[in-house]
Specification:
The chain is α/β, with parallel strands linked by helices. The protein is built from nine helices and five strands. The longest helix has 22 residues. The structure holds CO-5-methoxybenzimidazolylcobamide (B1M).
């Protein structure tokens, strides 16, 4: 791995928040591609901290400071990942489902969708289905995009879709889902029109859904 990107990777892995910001900036200034910094630096470090958590070598506090470091880096990459002056091609409401606090992947998907030309309304994490329904009534999106990172919360995607149907807001509205435990089979099972394995695929699928 290139030296500067390796330093970003290590800063995120070690939860060195201030260092991450400086190192991402230096890596950008050196002319490295934002997408490469994201994949080989930030995202790779989060995968490693996840693997360490799984094997008992890291604990929740370590995951948390790595996640915060990644967020610092991601904010600097945002302008490079999101193209300026794009006319909206549709409106997306995005959020992480109720009971789930993981928001990094959701933020990334939101950024990629912005980059693809969508107007994105971000409801944050731990979104109750009732609040989602209210937001749909207020913003009238083309797509609702839901993220879940826990096997225990992915069922809340189904609950939200059912509530959309019951309250009459589902007509003409496309639903997309994603997150580590989520699969295309699960999307088919709960009646979601779209599934994305990662943020860039999510943006591509969203474009297809509004075309
Ligand atoms: Co948690 N956590 N966590 N965690 N955490 C996981 C998810 C876990 C896999 C770790 C592990 O065991 N290896 C595990 C889940 C196991 C399971 O259910 N199968 C887990 C657990 C168990 C927990 C707690 C229960 C731990 C505890 O308290 N004992 C707890 C739950 C809290 C809660 O939500 N109620 C918890 C807490 C946390 C922190 C708060 C410490 C922190 C989150 C901070 C934050 O997000 N603000 C955290 C973190 C950081 C992780 C890991 C390490 C990293 C997640 C991440 O940000 N990845 C994670 C392990 C891992 O993923 N390897 C883990 C980087 C991100 C870019 O990837 O989010 O997968 P990801 O998003 C991808 C794709 O999934 C996809 O695109 C994104 C970009 O390519 N995608 C979509 C996501 N949403 C999409 C939506 C789409 C399409 C694609 O369409 C709409």
């Amino acid at each position: 791995m290139e030296e500067k990107i390796q330093a970003v990777y290590e800063a995120v892995l070690n939860g060195a928040m201030a260092d991450t910001r400086g190192l991402v900036q230096q890596t950008l200034d050196a002319g490295h591609d934002a997408d490469m910094i994201l994949k080989e630096g930030l995202t790779a470090a989060m995968s490693e901290i996840g693997a360490r958590f799984e094997s008992g070598e890291a604990y929740v506090p370590e995951m948390l400071i790595s996640a915060k470091s990644m967020k610092f880096g991601l904010e600097l990459l945002r302008p490079h990942l999101v193209a300026a002056d794009v006319q909206p091609i549709g409106k997306v409401i995005i959020g992480t489902v109720q009971g789930d606090l993981h928001d990094i992947g959701k933020n990334l998907v939101g950024m990629m969708m912005e980059g693809a030309g969508f107007d994105v309304v971000d409801l944050g994490a731990d979104v109750k289905p009732e609040d989602l329904i209210e937001a749909i009534k207020e913003h009238k999106p083309d797509i609702v995009a839901m993220s879940a990172l826990l096997t225990t919360t992915m069922g809340n995607m189904k609950t939200a879709i059912e509530m959309m149907a019951e309250t009459g807001v589902k007509d003409g509205l496309k639903v997309m889902i994603g997150g580590a435990p989520v699969t295309q089979d699960y999307a088919n099972e709960i009646g979601a029109e779209g599934f994305g394995i990662d943020a860039s695929q999510a943006a591509k699928i969203a474009k297809i859904l509004v075309s």
